[in-house]
Amino acid sequence: MNHDVTPINPTQDEVALKEVLSPLWTRRWKILFFTLLITCIVAFYSSLLKPSFQASAILQIGSNKPSNTLSINDAFNESSASQEQIQTQYELLRSRKFAERVISRLNLTKHEEFNSGKYNDKLPFLAELYRKDTTPTIDQTVREFHQRLTIKPIAGTELVNITFRSYFPELSKQVANQVGQTYLHYQDEIHGASKEATSQWLVDQLEELGKKLEASERALQTYREEQGIVDIRGIAGLVSAELTELTSAALKMSKDADDLKVTYDYIQKHKSSVEQLVELQKITNKPAFSQLRISEERAERKLNELSQRYGPKHPKRITAQADLNAIRINMAETVDEIVMSLEKDYLNALEKVKGTNQRLDKAKQHYLRLTRLQNKFSQLEREVDTNKELYSNYLVRLKEADAMGNYKANFYVRFIDKAITPKNKSAPNRSLMVIMSFILAFAVISIIVIMRELLMDTLNSRRKLENFNDAPILAVLPKFRRKNKQSTELDYFNDNRFTEAVRTLRTAILFNAEKKPPKVIAITSSVPNEGKTTVALQLARSFSEMEKVLLIEADMRHPTVYKNLDLAPHRPGLSNLLAKTHQINECIVRDSQVKLDILTSGITPANPLAFLSMKRFNMLIKVFGNFYDRIIIETPPVNAVSDAVIISRNVDSVLYVVHGSKTKRDQISAGLRLLKQANAPVQGVVINQSENIDTDKYHNKYYNDMANIIKLPMRKQG
């Protein structure tokens, strides 16, 4: 009967959340240590900073238009200035020009504020390092000044907040007030300079505009005389009306000529056939032809009546026939006359079309010439009008400027609140810096830990295990938490979590659905230090609870079992049996704790691979198989040496141990590929030292309560 061991998996979301959070819990002490370290560094750094003070002054910049508009209506009408003009005043307060004026008036280049650094005297060498030996330049002072100055408009008002931050409370007050005073002086200077410059500028502009106006008027009159223009707009209107009439007449004549052309073409085509010409509607509609057609019909009826009474030679019949022939000859002559009349009409229509088109072309040329004259005339006329308007406007502005006198139509500027000396420091906020540094350091370090775990190319998560297809995953063994440095292999056996995980591995080996349980099991790994010795020893102890088990240490190059069992390093073992220097009973040692027989590696030979390739090694395995229910062989790493590949020929199953957090997937794939190339019976992979995969949920639920466990006596061995 086949038995399938299906683990109980949590939902996908729970697994994903566990994978993200488990590295944080595993490395919680490291995260906490580095977070506290960074927080202490920030706290120490903040304690070295000088305290800063800031003072604020509130200035009102009114919305009256400035005097440079030079309009009496605007000057006495309190209309609102545009947002761009208000914003310009804010930028003036932030400008370099204002900064230089404030620095010059307060002599800030020699002030200690701009000559000392930002550190206090707790560390004298640090304070001296940032202290300037020479007076800073104006450029350096301006840069630092702008870093400390803040100009911030108060939303929805005409107020602006001027704030200056300094290490000296009194200086922060002085600078904030001086910026406002400098702005007031600047507005006075602007107004005075504007009054003087505006009047002279207007006089100069009027003189220049007068010359331009005179030149434009002279050019207009010269052009009028040269072209003989009296009323060009009226003439152009008459020519335009004539052009419209000629265009309409030309279109009508062309249509009539086209209609006559159809009749003319038909006549030319059937001119030799009177019968075809008679079918034309323009011929049949003629009254003369209609009368002849009626006479012809009467003559034909009369001839028909006489033909019924008299013979062909009867005088009456001959007379009737003669009358009919005379009528037909007359009809033919009438048709010829009508045809000639239609041809003449068509030729006359063509001549009329030609004549009308010639008159139309002349009218067009005349109209175009008048249009060019009119455009040039209008251009000169507009230039005269524009110069007149400009001259008049500037003359009005000059009169207004003289009438305004000393009126100041500038932005309305005044202090609302002057700055006062601050009593409390504004920075640094050491508590906030420490709290924020702790939060940011914890977040950054946590993200680094999570990203490092997610980017590691190992089998350290359920998601990575599900995507691993090189070999089946038999079991996941949790990381053993050592209580102290003196922990031994026996502590593994006493750890419920680890023991139950090993028992899960034992169950997976025994109840494999594909083949019978293996008797001889080899345990190997990719590289050293993956825990294959511990897995081999603990799996052997687990099997020894039910069976008679022998553990063989076949890793002669780097033996470690003797250390775990506290045995002599050079005691006889596998190499001695293969070299026939000792007997079996001298080499096998008994683990008294769990009744397990162990065959250590023995003396390390010069060529371990040659020893393991002997037929005697295969014979020893077969001999041991007669006395033991289960044989577990610990082998060297596959990627390091070829010993495991040689041993795999003599076993029923190979377990591949992988360190969950260290072994790379390419190392695992390379080792499994070597074993499969040698046709080794690889049963599956064992994940050892797993930190992030949840193996506690099931085991802790059933095995942590020691009161529920009944201890049975161990199996007695012979």
What does this structure look like?
- The two termini are 32 Å apart.
- The protein has three domains: 52-192 and 411-417, 2-Layer Sandwich (Alpha-Beta Plaits); 232-404, Helix Hairpins (Orthogonal Bundle), CATH 1.10.287; 473-702, Rossmann fold (3-Layer(aba) Sandwich), CATH 3.40.50.
- The protein has 718 residues and is an alpha/beta fold.
- Strands 5-12-11-6-10-7-9-8 form an eight-stranded mixed beta sheet, with helices on both faces.
- Helices cover 59% and strands 10% of the residues.
- Helix 9 (232-269) packs antiparallel against helix 13.
What does the largest sheet look like?
8 strands, mixed
Structural class of the secondary elements? alpha/beta
Radius of gyration: 59 Å
Q: Which second-level CATH architecture of the largest domain applies?
A: 3-Layer(aba) Sandwich
Helix content: 55-70%
| Total beta strands | 12
What proportion of the residues form beta strands (DSSP E)? 5-15%
- The number of domains is 3
Q: What is the spatial order of strands in the main beta sheet?
A: 5-12-11-6-10-7-9-8
Shape: flat
What's the SSE blueprint?
Elements: H1 12-26, H2 28-48, E1 53-61, H3 72-76, H4 83-94, H5 96-106, H6 124-130, H7 138-148, E2 149-153, E3 159-166, H8 169-227, H9 232-269, H10 274-278, H11 281-284, H12 287-309, H13 315-404, E4 413-417, H14 430-455, H15 462-466, E5 473-478, H16 489-494, H17 496-510, E6 520-525, H18 532-544, E7 549-553, H19 561-564, H20 574-579, H21 584-587, E8 588-591, E9 596-599, H22 608-612, H23 615-627, E10 630-634, H24 643-647, E11 653-659, H25 665-677, E12 682-690, H26 696-703
Parallel strand pairs: 5-12, 6-10, 6-11, 7-9, 7-10, 11-12
Antiparallel strand pairs: 1-3, 1-4, 2-3, 8-9
Helix pairs in contact: 1-14, 2-14, 5-7, 5-8, 8-13, 9-13, 12-13, 17-18, 17-26
